[in-house]
């Protein structure tokens, strides 16, 4: 009897998230879990590129009250661009009707999902790569490195939390780990860019990104973590200092000023008398 009951048990109707979360947040968490981690458990077929049929997604008990228009709004309003909708019209070669598909842009734990990712070949391809974590987790990360754990990739952001929503990092991050991208690339670590701007890496053969690739580590308030100051604060490049040679040569300085003045006049369509 117990075996029969277990066999008849279908996908859970309970939405993901905490009871104190808003209905919108719980709905988004349920959709994210379904497309990133729970497809097999829920009997949802997902293509190797991560797409699932919208009709099948909406038939899941967790999303029983969600319409296609609701789903479009979720995708459109998601500030981290977690999802993508794809429309495939019926063609003369295909049978059936038009089909809408949906996928999560990154964050999968299902090993058979192979997303089309843009390879990062140089540190100049991105402004930075930084991972946000908690103080408790940092104690372990400092010795063993970053781990992809059950996911397919380690997630890195292209900036630090601020006024804008940032894909690839939680706003609650207490520790910021900046990665030396060029050093990692030279060591054979592969890095990619997802369609929503998250930097992804599988790490080494064991799924780790070693501390040797940590360029600098900061607290959330941008102060350095003791022992991990390394190259100093990670900031955008600043303007080059003034030419000291010109400062020591008045004639050269005057020539430079006159030349710049002529260029300004030219650019502004000003005709000198």
Automatic annotation (TrEMBL):
Keywords from the named record: NAD, Transferase
Similarity comment: family membership: Belongs to the KptA/TPT1 family.
GO MF terms, alphabetically ordered: tRNA 2'-phosphotransferase activity
This protein's record includes keyword NAD: yes
InterPro entries listed in its UniProt record: Ptrans_KptA/Tpt1, RNA_2'-PTrans_C, RNA_2'-PTrans_N
Official protein name in the record: 2'-phosphotransferase
Residue spans of biased composition, Basic residues class: 1-17
EC id: 2.7.1.160
EC class of the enzyme, as a word: transferase
Reactions that this protein is recorded to catalyse: 2'-phospho-[ligated tRNA] + NAD(+) = mature tRNA + ADP-alpha-D-ribose 1'',2''-cyclic phosphate + nicotinamide
Function of the protein: Catalyzes the last step of tRNA splicing, the transfer of the splice junction 2'-phosphate from ligated tRNA to NAD to produce ADP-ribose 1''-2'' cyclic phosphate.
Region (Disordered): 1-26
Entry-linked Pfam families: PTS_2-RNA
Species the sequence originates in: Hydnomerulius pinastri MD-312
GO biological process terms on file: tRNA splicing, via endonucleolytic cleavage and ligation
